[in-house]
Structure prediction request, 109 residues.
Amino acid sequence: MASSSFSFTEHWLIVAATALICGSVTYIIYDAVMATASELLQRFLMISPLLLIIVVHCLSSGTQLNFPMPGSEPAAIHRAGGSPWGVAFVLLILFVLISYQPSFLSLLS
Prediction:
């Protein structure tokens, strides 16, 4: 039988220290990944109404993928509700205002 330079207690102490270090590193990586995923999910949820409007517009227009811009026709100003671009623009403005709310609040105080 070969003799070991470590005793049974020292061997378990090394295993416990290794497990503690690996667990700490894993938690730090997990925390960073979850913070990034949370930020990306928050941004996706903020922009999802705009994406939904674009998808509904594409599906309702048939097979063509054209996006008529308001004001491109001479009589476009007299028509209301012809395109969802006004709603999309308002949602985009709301997205910017909510995203930069802390910056706007710091300007006021």
Residues 49 and 91 are 7 Å apart (CA to CA). Residues 8-68+82-108 form one domain. The mean pLDDT is 77. The chain has one domain: 8-68+82-108.
